[in-house]
Amino acid sequence: MQALIQRVRRASVTVDGVVVGQIGVGLLVLVCAEHGDTMAHADKLLAKILKLRIFGDTDGKMNRCVQDLDGAGLHGGLLVVSQFTLAADTTGGNRPSFKNAAAPDLGRALYDHFVQHARVLHSEVQTGVFAADMLVELVNDGPVTIPMRVAAGD
């Protein structure tokens, strides 16, 4: 399972002209399930994301995670968006193959599990809509963009 994490000042997701999820300061998390991924992979990926120290401390060093922001007087949100295109394979030419992405039913189950678990562990979790045509807007802070993957054996 993999994710692309972006530290944001704000981010939102719009579907059919309606904002379905939005956060202020926090993390935009684009999540992709791949063949062989399990609920345990989703749990491990979420745990790593919640503890990823990419927010500045009082000295300006990236030393705080999103969960530390509440103690700093900020409210760090998570905006979780399904993103099967992270599984793109471009080694065979100019048209990407998505053969490594999980089948839609498994992808939805893993995404739903990831979101439900995130809502248990974190105070503010917003989402996109699985398999919808979404418009994602963000103000990347830094910019800071971190790819992360959890695979079998991790």
Indicate the topology.
Blueprint: E1 2-15, E2 18-23, E3 26-32, H1 39-50, E4 55-56, E5 62-64, E6 77-82, H2 104-121, E7 125-127, E8 135-149
Parallel strand pairs: 3-6, 6-7
Antiparallel strand pairs: 1-2, 1-3, 1-8, 4-5
Helix pairs in contact: 1-2
Can you walk me through this structure?
By secondary structure, this protein is α/β, with parallel strands linked by helices. The longest helix is centred in the last third of the chain and has 18 residues, at about 105-120. The chain has helices at about 40-50, 105-120, and strands at about 1-15, 20-25, 25-30, 55, 60-65, 75-80, 125, 135-150. The protein is about 20% helix and about 35% strand. Strands 1, 2, 3, 6, 7 and 8 form a 6-stranded mixed sheet that branches. The chain has a two-stranded antiparallel sheet with strand order 4-5. Helix 1 (about 40-50) crosses helix 2 (about 105-120). It has a single domain (about 1-150), classed as 3-Layer(bba) Sandwich (D-tyrosyl-trna(Tyr) Deacylase, Chain: A), CATH 3.50.80. The N and C termini lie close together (about 10 Å). The protein has 2 helices and 8 strands.
In short:
The chain has about 150 residues and is of the alpha/beta class.
- Main β sheet profile: 6 strands, mixed
Q: Could you tell me the number of beta strands?
A: 8
Tell me the number of structural domains: 1
**What would you report as the Rg, rounded to the nearest angstrom?**
15 Å
Fraction of residues in β-strands: 35-45%
CATH topology (fold) name: D-tyrosyl-trna(Tyr) Deacylase, Chain: A
